[in-house]
């Protein structure tokens, strides 16, 4: 294609592309930190009701937190641990002389005076705002609100990026993230915290889709898989860094603020990044495109080739592309033609399913009953081999078969947990590890596959549609936790069935391995038509082969 030839002329995967690829580590790492931040800022420590008349710690008899004295104030649950949400309406000292309370019918009440939390666990939004018992669902709602922000951001920033450029969106979203992230760290109450997290989610989507598109549009066709794999590994590295930060920074406000202020790095280096020449050309901004192409050629050691580039030369290479591009793309352009509509629906279901099941497994690590920092690290390390295998598979077998295979594998792992007894926590965690790892590999495929399926004029909107879908799935995942408290089997069944539906949809997509990036909707429709005709010819050959086989069998008989 025209722009692919221009990239090859100015050095292909040269110094500039290598530098830009290296810099993408910052947005991918920080985005991951924000996505999984609530695993640590919303940890639920062990807790029980504040005993009757316990309004001041100095008035409590010594040792009331330990041993038998606590039984005077708090009933025991079936595991012989203090009830989290009930207390006796008055102290019962006679309990100290009994082996248990099962034979007693003692009056209990809710935690009218608040809760006492395990002091070995530092502050979290749960302990600060008492998001326990009747209010425990607010913890999941807070995460859903954050995901809703990503949902809205995918639409808004996707449209803005295709209209006003990738670089502007990257810078404006970064400024927003710094401001609202620090606002969340200083939030005076839970409603304000949720509002700031909503705005953080919006900014996060703008940063990731703009930075990935900006990088991929400067990357030659042959190197896109490698660059995409690198970006996915940086996401995994972000989870490792978050685990380390959370281990050393136990106060949730300091952890929230530290992760947010680091976005200054992205803001600083973004000023030196050139706008995507691919976007500039398809929007008839030829003078600026030539300027950026010459700058990149100079960095790649192709200064002489860069001097030969003029608006006329670039226009000659891209005349068909620029003539077919709409000046102001809109979200409905994703459904403008039958082929594009099929691509949008199938890829959106893939993103939705991956987000729904991935975050369903990754956002409730305390349920396994192990150290939260160790479990987070295990879930992170599992991503490394699956992303490597996904990258190799995409290169050798193609994008489509890789996505379908990983979705089916994840589905099997999750559904098997339905039949595992609740007390086999270790086996359940191993199955979830493989399921989450498969979905992480699927994400690395979807990021690349989506950018290759959509043309330049609506690529950002297409990416935003994918991000929108996955955030819709991740928004619903915490709500399944709330429903799962009433029906435990509902969680693995819901998280396991969705990848099967997505795998069926993905099987209808066109393969894009080693294919150039398309620039216009007309080119995309043409590719979809060729793919459809190829499938029809294949089906006809299979039918012809079957008929010949039947004829031979008839003659033999």
TrEMBL record:
Lineage top rank: taxon: Eukaryota
* Matches recorded under Gene3D superfamilies: MFS general substrate transporter like domains (1.20.1250.20)
Which residue ranges does the record annotate as region Disordered? 524-545
| Stretches that traverse the bilayer | 173-192, 198-218, 230-249, 261-281, 340-362, 368-389, 401-420, 426-449, 461-483, 489-509
Q: Where in the cell is it found?
A: Endomembrane system
Q: Which gene encodes it?
A: LOC112659486
Q: What is this protein called?
A: Solute carrier family 22 member 20-like
Organism of this sequence: Canis lupus dingo (dingo)
Q: Pfam families attached here? A: Sugar_tr
List the taxonomic lineage: Eukaryota, Metazoa, Chordata, Craniata, Vertebrata
Topology in the lipid bilayer is annotated as: Multi-pass membrane protein
Q: Which GO terms describe its cellular component?
A: endomembrane system; membrane
